[in-house]
Amino acid sequence: MKKLFAIAIILCSMSMSALAQEAEMPNIIVFPANVWMNGQGYVKNVTRDGVTKRLYQYADAFATNRDLGRAVTAVQKVFADRGFRHEDLQNLLQNIDEDAAMDMAFDADGEGSETSVAEQLMDETKPDIRVNLDFSVEQVGPRRNISWELQAVDAYCNNQVASVQGNIPLTTDPVDLAIRKAVAGNADDFSQQLINYFLDLRDNGRKIIVVFKAAKGSGIDFRKNKVGTMPMFMWISKWMKSHAVNGAGGSGSPSANKYQLKNVRIPFYDENGESTNAQEWVMALLEEFASETGITAYPQRGSLGSVYLSLGGE
Amino acid sequence: MTMVVTSTWAKKDETPDYDYELSSVKETASATSGYKIFKVWSYATKRQLLTQEICMRNAIHGILFKGLVGSDTGTQGNVPAMIPDGYESHKEYFDTFFGSGEYKQFIQLTSRGAQQAGDVVQINKKRWKVGLLVQVNVNALRKRLEKDRIVESAANIFRR
Q1: Strands A297-302 and A306-311
Q2: pTM for this structure?
Q3: Reported ipTM
Q4: Alpha helix ranges (H) inside B2-160
Q5: Is A50 strand, coil or helix?
Q6: pLDDT at position A100, please?
Q7: Which residue in B22, B30, B139, B157 has the most chain A C-beta atoms within 10 A of its own C-beta, making it the best mutation to test that interface?
């Protein structure tokens, strides 16, 4: 009995460690492209303070457009076959009600922020790669011309990292079958582009954008103020280079009250093996900066791959 | 009229080189990912050397080291070479893989290897070319190479 118990514990710990390893993979979510959502009318325009924002109705799109669900499933099958970690958008949508998101958009939380379902999904699930699927159908008598595109975008830097596209001329196939054929026929090319990008991420770190902004009335000048003996922007640049992967601390030229660094490469995982993001990564910088200068700084806003820091504010 | 190239006249020491080209076939788009149907054109000095086995070997060699260019139908995309570094990067492994005939489990003939008119061509006195339509299980082939650590899988890239 004791032996059985020991074996069970060993098996359990082995499967747990396997799961932990799986969890380290970048996460992918397949979305219908914004242009497709607009074209099909699955969008609501919300205007606030004179600014119009588009809120995409993903739940409606999946509920009423059969072709979309099948096309997305075909793409997800490719990821499953190739061992990519991915999440099903339809399942995620069940957890996030559209109305709740709309409520959030108008929520008087003092920040005045408007959050779309897409933003909420990106925030909660932290996908590393967003895959956009677009297709359009032109009826030509009994036949159809179908144009389609698959595009993978790194959620951290909004760079396109993989894409395949094509045109299926004068087909008699139903739309969903034609799209499935197209996805199946281009799966190898698309997957290989993703694999190549993942290899780059692993070896060189992920790319983020960091923006330093002097708060109003703080009197901070990135070029004139000094930290120790060097100008403030140089101290920041030096810190970034010494902490970024392979010294890739990004590039950018400072103005008096703003210093933006692009293509900063940060480690994929923190020391605990958990996925990091831009805001988490800069916290060490802010602490060191505060101890050196006595100036407090805090992240004003940010996304997975970008962070805006306000320096010297109240 | 269909012709089948047999292996009865081929001698072991006359095994032809990897001299071939792959071409996509328009009408073979499948809604199932993982399989590729394409034509392999193999070249040799004698027709008898171009057996089905040699043609199949060439097809697998092409998928591994050269890749397959897609057609313009929108449903047949490129298949990038699985081992862009070439045969020599894992010479010992592939000597065994091809020498033992292991590659055959990832390929099958379509229509039992039946060939159409124009699939066997004598280019000149000393050069023949033979075309054969084949189906390769690209997914299974890749998984085998991932298992043997010849190529990196998506899961392995971030495994520590």
Answers
A1: antiparallel
A2: 0.78
A3: 0.81
A4: 52-65, 91-99, 138-147, 154-157
A5: coil
A6: 60
A7: B157
